[in-house]
Amino acid sequence: MIQTLVERQKHYFNSGETKPYAFRKSQLLQLQKMLKTFEAPILKALKFDLNKSEFEAYSSEILFLQNEINEHLNHLKQWMAPTKVKNPLTHTGTKSYILKEPYGATLVIAPWNYPVHLAIAPVIGALAAGNTVILKPSELTPTVSWVLKRMVETYFPPEYFTVVEGEKETTQQLIDQNMDYIFFTGSTSVGRQIMSQASNYLTPVTLELGGKSPAIVDSDANLKLAAKRITWGKFTNAGQTCIAPDYVYVHEDVKQRFLTLLSSYIESFYGHFPLQNPDYTRIVNKQHFDRLTEYLHEGTLIHGGQIDEINTTIEPTVLDDITWDAAIMKDEIFGPILPIMTFEHMDEVMADMDRQHKPLALYYFGEDETEQRRVTEGLSFGGGCINDTLYHVAHPRLPFGGVGNSGMGAYHGKASFDTFTHAKSITKQTTAFDQSFRYPGSKFGLALMKKWLD
Ligand code: NAD
Fold first, then answer.
1. Ligand 1 in reach of 213 Cβ (< 6 A)
2. pTM over 0.70
3. CB of 352 closer than 6 angstroms to any ligand 1 atom
């Protein structure tokens, strides 16, 4: 069945129907309509699978997608146009340009933590670029996956865009169909397996992975805003955000004040009893809940620490006195537990960061522009913010992606279109004359080459 589906998509792509601008535009409008019509079921499914509040569902899933579609609709024609390039002397008489060619039948593999946003955002780029798409959502948020399947089959024919539900075996079967492009969002370990399997067919991949993203709070930071924005970035979606600050490195001179502020913002956002807050996101399943609760015994508890096993919720928790030896510092946390580490000199932080895998995001809080530059230019990471968290991801003109262990490739806005587009270079040679210097035996050619090398 999977084999037939991919064959149908390849056949449909080869018919050329997906390529014209008018078709692509109409499909983006369909996507927009689909999301609008299915807004209520999406909200219900997010509530059911993750207890995601309406506020978070709109702000981090639905609104992002509508903005992304608008950005594509506004610029698609211009992005699709062939790009002319200037000629060097050797190419006098030619016209050279880059055609924007869709790859063909693409596969989008999505995770569960923002199960609508992270499934549909790559699809926007893929369809805008003229491809067909098979979307494989996460099995850990089954209600959302079910809604995704229903809404896509209501608005799109399967030979163009369809949803295939299933577990890892289904994904592996899809990769084995020799897809033309694979866009994967998920963990670093699974990303490695996807790339390895895709290499059998030399299928190009984009890998949007995870990692431990630090927030650094320097002695001259605006502490109130640092605490507020870190609280927001860390505990949104109960910490199950790929670019959430995984841990905080705070300057020892401001640490106590920062911790007090952190506690007060947690209370102001989630109340005295977050576990009783009907809008507080749950941990996706018992396995992740158990993994996270193990960490609660580490360091010194500063805030939170309560858990609700039945609802798989964990209070926003702050743990002080954490070192790199702690188990919580070994892997990406991906939950509402924030370890705190202290530093005296930025050099120590930079040296520690250099020893770690390159993170997906990094957040620096401090007013001194020299230090801001030292951190953002001196360390390698996917992307990030100065004096904020998460906000870079919502900018339609900033490519989003990781580097090293946190991924390869990028998307959002034009970067999405470019990711799903092969840049095909063409030289249109003149037949009005023929420059002889490149042919064997040309004395003029030899003299010219020697002159260039001088
Ligand atoms: P995951 O890697 O377990 O699963 C992602 C997808 O891959 C799912 O659809 C799953 O069914 C499939 N899958 C799982 N194992 C597979 C295998 N062996 N072979 C083929 N397919 C397989 O990730 P997850 O738990 O759904 O998501 C959490 C992770 O994703 C975190 O590490 C997080 O940082 C990362 N993430 C990254 C981004 C980003 O944009 N960079 C966004 C969200 C999440």
1. no
2. yes
3. no
